[in-house]
Description:
It is a single chain. By secondary structure, the protein is mainly alpha-helical. The chain has one domain (21-343). The protein has helices at residues 21-36, 41-46, 52-71, 124-136, 168-181, 190-211, 215-247, 252-274, 297-303, 306-315, 320-331, 335-343; strands at 39-40, 82-84, 92-99, 108-110, 114-116, 119-121, 139-146, 159-160. Strands 1-2-8 form a 3-stranded mixed beta sheet. It has a 3-stranded antiparallel beta sheet with strand order 6-3-7. The two termini are 33 Å apart. InterPro entries: Aminopept. One of its GO terms (molecular function) is aminopeptidase activity.
Amino acid sequence: MTLPPGSHRLFALLLLPLLHGCYLLQAAGGQMEIVSKREPIDQVLANPATPDKLRARLEYVSAARDFASRELGLPDNPSYRSYADLQRPYVVWNVFATDEFSIEPRRWCFPIAGCVVYRGYFNEESAQSYARKMRMNGGDAMVGGVAAYSTLGHFRDPILNTMMGWSDAQLASTLFHELAHQVVYVPGDSEFNEAFATAVEEAGLERWLNERGRSQDMLAWRRQKERQQEFIDLLLGTREKLKELYASKLPADEMRARKAEVFGRLKFDYAQLRAQWNGFTGYDWWFDRALGNAHLVSAATYHGCLPGFQRLLASLGGDLPKFYEEVGRIAKLPKAERERSLCGGE
């Protein structure tokens, strides 16, 4: 996907058995396509016709999957032990939206997944059509392609062809992230869920690379995390500027003009930041479109609460099972108390 920054993936939690009409049909059809194309990884590896490149990637995935359960305490179940080739670049396309003068994401509520900050479609044009309708009604909206997919383990989620072009580190970290959703998941609290899974992903990847003696990969990953954090800080800073602007209650025309100035400043500040990265241009794609509030949703969703989870894990000496237990306890608290505990809420 084109979201969130640096990872090009997002998680589509699309268990929607109680919905109706066209949205239900496309969601059910997309899920059934994934199920029908699943094949156990062991069978794919045993097939002499499997291309060498795909074979190597699936062997790597299998090793990371075993490590996840053995060393990280993540679920040992059928999830990510099969492979599906959907023969397209993304599994689903997500729509993010806000009001014109708001940084708060619009939310859609579904069975099991609860309320989430995106609406997913298995067809890109359907997603684009919905986003256009949101814009016509005065909102900000964007569409991002999703390469990774999770149903919280309800459908034995497979590894997808859409993930095979990733680096080893990105592939393993995504696997750990997805499995973490099966350990703790609070319906309706995307910020809590994604920050928790990101904390597990990052801790897990560092241990995985250390075990394999991939010192160069570790150095490259740490440098990438530094760049990613710098970029995320830039986005979150822009979000705060917009929050202050929208609270000012200026006339709409003036608000609109100042909003454009804020996004213009974001582009300028990014150019200054990129100049320090020795030729790295990995986030240039982010600016290849007209920007709006909706483009900042994923940065806040995945990273706004992350420092709190990281501090908690460090306070427990990096003990992941204890971390899962404590996060599980906090997850049962009312939302306001969860935010005070881990997200810096008031």
